Amino acid sequence: MPILEILNYPDARLRTVAKPVTQVDDRIRQIVKDMAETMYDARGIGLAATQVNIHERIIVVDVTEDRNGLRALINPEVISSSAQTKVHQEGCLSVPGVYDEVERPDLVRIRCLDENGETQEFEADGLLSVCIQHEMDHLQGKVFVDYLSRLRQSRIQARLQKQSRIQAQTARA
Ligand code: NI
Questions:
Q1: Sign of the dihedral through C-alpha 134, 139, 145, 150
Q2: Ligand 1 centroid vs 43 CA: distance in angstroms?
Q3: How many Å lie between the centroid of ligand 1 and the Cα of residue 94?
């Protein structure tokens, strides 16, 4: 199974809005497997298909410390969310080395399909809630830095562009 390439902010492809999955079949299950492997390899707690340039509504998450709580959410929807919000420090595999605070609803009720095509409905709180909301944003073409101030966004862009220039020079050397 291949490790997929993760797109880096501010890559314009991260702005693509993902399409719903029409049928959960072996092709989708393979995407889920490859995404899970890519997420574990990158030591992330979540990955949206958008980040690996696949524009279908699929996310994988695992917020457990033992890395044995993989969950695939296909066509995820937030059915309800709490009025109570919480601020969390977030990071993103597409925005390496950048962490900042984002405020989101504390609790969300989610409906989705699993990798067998079965409907699942559950309530998420804490880190799982943050992670699912963050990944669902990706499917809408949204990145967590969009929530930050303009100044912070342009600093992050400048820093990542500098990093990728250094990487390109190192690769040529
Ligand atoms: Ni992310």
A1: negative
A2: 12
A3: 6
Distance CA 48, CA 6 (A): 10
Question: Taking the alpha carbons of 155, 13, 62, 107 in that order, is the dihedral positive or negative?
Answer: positive
pLDDT tens digits, residue range 56-85? 999 999 999 999 999 999 999 999 999 999
CA 168 to centroid of ligand 1, rounded, Å? 23
Which one of 56, 65, 118, 135 is the catalytic residue?
135
1 has pLDDT over 70: no
CA–CA distance, 26 with 163 (Å, rounded to integer): 38
pLDDT tens digits, residue range 119-128? Answer: 999 999 999 9
What's the 173 CA to ligand 1 centre distance in angstroms?
31
Give pTM, 2 decimals: 0.95
Catalytic status, residue 135: yes
Tokens of 145: 């830095």
